[in-house]
Amino acid sequence: MAFPRHVLVSPLNWGLGHATRCIPVIRYFLNQGSKVSLASDGNALQLLKDEFPELEVLELHSSQVTYSSFGFYFYLKLVLQGIGLQKRALMDEDLVEAYVDKHGVDLILSDHRFGAYSKKVRSVILCHQLQFKAGLFSYSSSYFNAKQLNRFAEVWVPDTDTTPSLSGILSLSKQVNVPVKRIGVLSRFKTLELEEKIDYLAVISGPEPLRTQFEEKLIESFIKLTSKTCVIVRGVYNQDVLQNLPPHLSVYNHLKSRELNTLICSARIVICRSGYSSVMDMACLGKTVFFVPTPHQGEQEYLADRLEKQKIAPCSSQKKFKTTDLENLEMYSGFNSEEWPRFPLPAFRQTLEA
Description:
Elements: E1 6-11, H1 17-20, H2 23-31, E2 35-40, H3 42-51, E3 56-59, H4 71-80, H5 82-103, E4 107-111, E5 122-126, H6 138-149, E6 154-157, E7 180-182, E8 198-203, H7 210-223, E9 230-233, E10 249-252, H8 257-265, E11 267-272, H9 276-285, E12 289-291, H10 298-309, H11 348-353
Parallel strand pairs: 1-2, 1-4, 2-3, 4-5, 5-6, 6-7, 8-9, 8-11, 9-10, 11-12
Keywords: Transferase
InterPro entries: Glyco_trans_28_C (IPR007235)
Protein name: Glycosyltransferase
C-alpha cells in the first residue's frame, strides 16, 4: 500500500500517557507530509490540542472511569464499568466511520482505544500491554483485551526489538493472533545538556483520588526539605494554582512538552509513576528516577519491581514512600539512553507500506 495520506490518531483518555506517547508519532507523520487529525476526549484531547493547535479534531465519547482506592475493589469497579465503556466504544465507532468517509482518512492509529476502528480503512492499535496484571481478573481482562486487539490489522508495540525489552512480559501474548510489530521506544522529549539545578522533580499523573493523595504526600514532604530545590508538576487541567508555598518549592498544574522537557533535563532526580509512557520517557532521557506506582495497578507495580530488580531504578509503594528513600539512589545505575532505540526503528516505513 502507499504511504498514508491522512492519519487519524486516537489515544485513550486514561491518564495522559496514551496521549503523550502519540506526540512523536504525530510529528513523524507530519514530517513525512501526511495530514493528521486527532480523535479523543477530556484531558488527553486537550493535551494534544495544546501541542498541535493547527490539527483538526474529532471529539469522542468519554472514556474516563472512576476508581476505588482499595485493592480488590479497584479492579472490581473497573469491571463493573466495562459495559458502559463498551457502549461508548461502539458509539465512537459510528463517529469514526463518519469521519473516515467525510475526510478521506486512510489510516487509523488507535492508542488502546477500541472504538477508534473502521472496517473501511486500515486500523492499527498502539499497545504495549498485550496481557494484563490485574490480580484475580488477570486472565479475564487479558482475554477480553486480546479479543479487541485481534480486530485490528496490526498491533504496534512501542518497545525495542532487542533483548532485554522495556515492557517485559506485558507485551507478550499467545492470545493475540494479528501481526505484532515493535516500532521503537516512544518519547516526546529530547536530551538537553542542562545544569541540574533542581534536586527533586515530581511529575504526577494517574486516576483520582490516587493522584491527589500522592500530590498531598509530596507537598507535605517537600515543604520540610528547605535545603533542596523541589518542583512538582501536578498533571491537572482546570484547577486553581496552588498558593502560599515556600520559596524552595515550585508547583505547576501542567506544562507543554518543551517546558516539561527542560524541567526534567534540569533535575538531578525525577520522582514519577511507573506507567509505561513515563518509563519510556525516563529511559530515552537517561534519567535517575524513583518510581512510585499507582496503587493497585498491576502493570505499574510489575514495571517498577522489574526495574528495581535490574538495579536500574528503585521504587516504593505510595503508602510507604518517604523522601529519605531518595538517599539510596547511588546503588542504582539509572537509565542509559543508548540502550533503548527510539521510534521509528529502521523497518517502520516498510511496515506502513507493506
